Amino acid sequence: MNEYFSPIDFLVLKPVILLTLFGIGVMLTDLFLDQQHKYMNAVTALVGLAFAAVQLWLIQSEMAAQGVAQIEAFRGAVVLDRFAIYFSWIFLISSAIAILIAIRYLEIEQEHHGEHYAIMLFAAVGMMVLVMGMDLVTLFIALELMVLSVYILTGFLRRDRRSNEAALKYLLLGAFSSGILAYGMSLLYGMSGSTNLNVIADSLAARPAGDPLVLIAITAIAAGLFFKVGAVPFHQWLPDAYEGAPTSVTAFMSVGPKAASFAFLLRMFLVPLGSAREEWLPLLVGVSIATMTLGNLAAISQSNVKRLLAYSAISHAGYLLLGLVSGNETGMKGIAIYFLVYTFMNMGAFAVIVALRRRDLIGDEIDDMAGLMYKCPTAAVLMLIFLLSLAGIPPTAGFLGKYFIFLSLIETGHITLAVIAVLYVAVALYYYFRIVAVMFMREPVDQEKLSFSPGIRIALGVTAAMTILIGLYPEPFIQFAGSTVLSILR
Amino acid sequence: MTTTVLLFTLLKVIVIVFVVLTAVAYAVWFERKVVARLQSRWGPTRVGPHGLLQPLADAIKLLTKEDITPANVFRLVYFLAPALSVITALLAFAAIPFGPVTLVGGVDLFQIANLDIGVLYILSISSMGVYGIALAGWSSNSKYALLGGLRSSAQMISYALAAGLSLVGVLLLSGSLNLRDIVNAQAGATWGFIPHWNIFPQLLGFFCFLTAAIAQTNRLPFDLPEAESELVAGYHTEYSSMKFAMFFMAEYANMLTVSCMVTLLFLGGWHGPVFGPALLQTMLPLLWFSLKVLALLFLYIWIRGTLPRFRYDQLMAFGWKFLFPLALVNVLLTSLIVAYRAD
Amino acid sequence: MPESILNGLFFYVLAVVILGGAIMTITRRNAVHSAIWLVVTLMGVAGLYLHLNAEFLAAVQILVYIGGIMVLFLFVIMLVNLDEAAKQRQFNRQWSLALICTLVVLVEFGFFLMRGAGSFAFAEPGQGALKPNTELMAVALFQDYLLPFEIASLLLLVAILGAVLMAKKEI
After folding, report:
1. CB nearest B116 (choices: C39, C74, C133)
2. A119-173: per-residue pLDDT in tens?
3. β-strand partners of B104
């Protein structure tokens, strides 16, 4: 009778608990480290991520061995299914890469504090709970944990005005959008009397089509979620936040929190709002077209690489939303694989920008890339690979995600949408190749050599290898992604 | 029936407010007397025997004094602040039971409202008292008053936490937020002479709460918001006449509230030996209650007469680095013991 | 049905207090006045909780928001010299446009809510809900919503960390 929680609850949360403990551990050990040894914090954090990964692997293989599709824990507050596990992998990987590229960068910025890594781990906790959450309260608090951590990381360069402004802007708008989201959630609760997503789904399914309350709930929830994933017209924060944040953090927030928000969006639209598909579909189509349009067109005129990648991130959100528009298995598979690929290629691109950072050069203007081919061929070629992949050119991994999403659109008969999306890929090629042209065609401004820290070396190696590997040998990854999304499609 | 209940309740409220205000007036007299004796003086002696009519004289004086409103004050807030102080101070008495349930015509004589969340109610009402002080300091448009208001708001927040936390132990032991239930849980005695008061198992909590409560009522050694040696008179520098008196009343009413709270939560409330005829049996609990409150008031004044004032940083450090952790430890220990007993 | 009329009256009075206070909060030029109006708003919310028989929540609302957070607000406002800020433009140039948009959304939401109001299914409050209020709260926090409760502690830790990080000169 007095069973408030069971061992299963702890099992499910073990990776999360480990991350939390390591986060607190980093904060404690940071006290005893002098400035030269701050990198040990990064090592501790990486060890924590590795522990969490091992736990996740054990849980995953145990679930596979016993043929369990999902485990419910904490009275249904969280559910660990393949979908959650898949995204948890993405979070662990992206956090690890972000930590690797952050070490040298923060040293140069003279803001190398252990709190950076602690907050990153806490953000990972928020993201993992967010994809596991099946309860409105849990989801909302996990979301807030994630975004709050990212706000702080965005403003981590305390003496840099750009960073401060970005953090403040992100915080104010983010808090506002959270309010709208919470309003939508409260309507769901009011209609169903429960905070559990499955109960809400059943309750909404019993309502007549076109129920005005459901419409408002969809509007409010969609507005909140679109903000979090940076879809037009709720995207204004994104370029500023991406540009102002420390580049290593930009890399992190463009992948981890974005994937988490997107997973949250999928969960909300497919589970509780799944029965109201007819109502939200037009909205989603409009938003995804607007997002692709604005993202791709605005990226053309950018002179700052971080801003350019921010607009490219917006356009990617548009493509990803298309996967939800088609809503079939291929579409979901496309979204899942897209995020895996996106993790590597986007973080790789940012890692190159981080590598350009020197004491007297921020390195995020396109002009700073001039003649990179002559200064450092490795960096230039790697950047080329990442940009090709971001554009979706076949031999690289980026092609795969777009392929499945476009395929799903055609399968479900959204031919026009598919055509528009493909057209925008051509536009995207233009602005990605602007960077390539600057790197390869222009003379270098200075002859200073680039120095790669060990962290960046590893990060670049892993991201580049995976970008090519997934592109050349996609079979296992497609299977992995394909098996995970079934659990979310009801 | 409802009309009589309503009438009775109204009457009760009026009586209690009257009693409290009288008690406040005499608390001032009591303080002046005790402090005087501590300093080998006589205190008020001229007005009435032992100066017992002094409060009346003071009241007449304060009411008839010229009421000055300085030129550049924020008028609305300036007028609102003293009222806010008194109102919150008096509101707290609504939930305090002065004696056991004594029903007359369906109305409980010794308590205005028996709230299930009595402890929280009193805490939250008294936490609002700071607005009177802070806003008085701000609206006076004077640097001394502003500093006083600033200090009081910082002090209130710092010590409200410790005060709230130190009560958690008592709440854990009695399992209720209802003041009556808490008092009833303290009935009886071990071996016939050690009463089951919460002060014995909760000595740490008692100490923390008393200290934090003294700080929250802005009394010496925590009276920095009105430290006369640095801030003239602190937050009420620019107030005169009745408005000044209202702050005074609020301060002493708050002292009374705290004394009542400590009596109820730690000293067994109205419990004590009860004997004799029926009338005496109803009156004795009241007497015990009053005696305990009086003893605490004496303690208040005793501390005031003995200890010097803190420095501001000492005050903050004491609150955050000593009292707050101590209260946390108390919560931890008590909850461990309660959990151990429950098993 | 005098009781339901009284209930409705309570609700509407509190709603006016809350909304009026909120509007005054954002339109006052003087930051202290804004803070006072915000206190009024929060009091209204506490009243709403009481109206819903959630007395524990009401007391905690007053204790935490009014007695704690808003006092801190006041403290900071009084500590920082805001005379300069009071002279600056309070709203940006698009405020009229924003107001129109907000009103349109408000009317839209109001219209939809009116049409859908009949289909709201609220759980009935338990009879004599006053008594076990605190206990119910504890059950909700420590059994049904244990996980969010724990994660909220992490959230607060991150918030503290961030505040210290941003504010402190030398870390």
Report:
1. C133
2. 999 999 999 999 999 999 999 999 999 999 999 999 888 888 888 899 999 999 9
3. B107
Report how far residue A366's alpha carbon sits from residue A364's, in angstroms, rounded to the nearest whole number.
6
Domain ranges of chain B: 67-342
Residue closest to A295 by CA, chosen among A355, A230, A242, A369: A230
Residue C42 lies in a domain: yes
Q: What is the pLDDT of residues A55-95, one digit of tens each?
A: 999 998 888 888 888 888 888 888 888 888 889 999 999 99
C149 interfaces chain B, CB cutoff of 8 Å: no
Q: What is the DSSP letter of A351?
A: H
The separation between CA B288 and the C-alpha centre of its own chain, rounded to angstroms, equals 18
Residues C10 and C79 in one domain: yes
Q: Would you state the structure tokens that stand for residue A22, as one six-digit string?
A: 């390591």
Q: Would you call C36 an interface residue with chain B, using a CB distance cutoff of 8 Å?
A: yes
Q: Closest-CA residue in chain B for C79?
A: B150
Q: Check which CATH number belongs to the domain holding C35 and give it.
A: 1.20.120.1200
Chain C: give the shortest CA distance to residue A138, in Å.
Answer: 5
> What domain range includes position C3?
1-85
Query: Would you call C154 and A125 a contact, using CB atoms and an 8 Å cutoff?
Result: yes
Question: B320: Cβ–Cβ under 8 A, 6 or more apart, which residues?
Answer: B158
Q: How many domains in chain C? A: 2
Average confidence score pLDDT of chain A: 88
Is residue C121 a part of any domain in this protein? Answer: no
Q: Is residue C105 included in any domain, yes or no?
A: no
Q: Which residue carries 């967010």 as its tokens? A: A130
Q: Do the Cβ atoms of C158 and A145 come within 8 Å?
A: yes
- Is C25 a domain residue? yes
Judge: A137–C145 Cβ closer than 8 Å, yes or no: yes
What global pTM score does this model have? 0.89
- pLDDT band for position B1 (50/70/90)? low
C133: closest CA of chain B, how far (Å): 9
